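Inputs:
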Amino acid sequence: MTALLAHADPALVFARRGGREISVGAFLADVAGLAAVLPQGRFVANLCQDRYRFAVGFAAALCRGQVTLLPPSEAAGVLAAVLGGYQDVYALTDLAVDVPVPVFAYPGHLLPVACENPAFPPDQVAAVLFTSGSTGTPAAHPRSWGLLVSAAASAGQEMAVAKGASLVGTVPHQHSYGLESLVMLAWRHGLVLQAERPFYASDITSLLADLPRPRVLVTTPVHLRLLLAEAGGLPPADLVISATAPLELALAEAAEAAFAAPLHEIYGCSEAGQLASRRPSRRDEWRCLDGISLRQDGSATLVSADGVETALGDIIELSDSRHFRLLGRNTDMVNIAGKRSSLASLNAQLQAVADVVDGVFTWNAAGTRLEAFVVAPGLTAENIRAALRGRIDPAFMPRRVRLVQSLPRNPLGKLTCAALTALQAAV
Amino acid sequence: MIGETLQSSQEAELAALIMKTLNLETAADAIDPQAPLYGEGLGLDSIDILEIALAVSQTYGVKLRADDENNTAIFQSLRRLNQEIQSRRAV
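Outputs:
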């Protein structure tokens, strides 16, 4: 059994919200209060936007033995596809959401219930994360309490996280990275969780500047690039964590200088969660977190976590079972702003649009966003965009929709990279 | 004269900045100044919004801030965004 919180004393600060402090004792009382009123159900989709409420909801679900589902996006089509496969499920929300299951609104006022720090068995399924399968149907990846705890313990130790540090994140907590590096890191290292998720660069810097040190910022390469481009300098931090996409060494070094703090990168995948970390300014090599090991079988790299093996899409050079270099990312994987999908699943969604005869997604020339080539007599680019909007996350919306007569498929019906590149160059 | 659906010259300048920043294919003068920029309409996502916020900060010296729970309220239209920038610029 492992306790929910590593905070030593109920009087310590657990979270800050709108400048107010919420103690560990008040948080535990909210958890017990919410657990007492949550509806029956095996599964709860926790859609709370406020990070404190999300944490209360996640902990209350653990107390009730309910499994938390974390849909990757709030797009109505994505919610329907993810939750459609579940019975005995409800959604916990703090804002109006269009969701096809019964909704339980986070109560405006919770009756606090006195509560000790609860503990849960390691094999209890805590959460389910989702990836989009090659057919467009979401694939579920359960995460046990034990694995979440051991990965958070190991990541925090590797990055030398200081107890009591202020924790701010620019990433959503409904994703693997946010769940692990915000909620789990705060719970298991006694950090102070910030309820707000700052959005604009100036919101991030002013929020950070107002918080007591030590300060930890959980962010992505996209946010780091935008923060560094803003005039006026950045407030000092004590640790910066980046994940979701590889960070250029120059950007990592610039961020360390601007925040006067070490920057650690985390490597993971939605299937197995966080796997390894490194400080890019010090070493290129990744070290696996405790409980994680890798092996190779032919060209495939398999990661073992929680007794389950998962094939990694990326091209990896192993030094030994716990150290590796990342040589390249899988070309089918699409990862934009922390949202993951695969080209195969996006193509399936595009081809399912009425009156689309054929279609394919591809990276734009800059390699930053997607574009689409579509065969659809009678449709305009705007028609196609409108049809895609409800089906896929906005991050994957094609920057350009190119209508073409046909796609250069080979006799086997495949589109080779060379043929696609030639098509991109021709239009 | 600036009509309800015609861009003013300030709005046209801002529309051109958005198109250049995001490398979009839509013609800048085709943006309806009253149509939403986020989600529907132009279909921008949150990273686009951050990119535009940076371009606005570098071009106009105005740092966009979230003033309520809805981070993207000022992106509800080109007109609303332009008003926000011009009013903050004047102070």
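Remarks. The mean pLDDT of chain A is 90. Chain A touches chain B at residues 49, 95, 198-203, 206, 222-223, 226, 229-231, 336-337, 366, 385, 389, 394-395, 397, 399-400 (CB under 8 Å).
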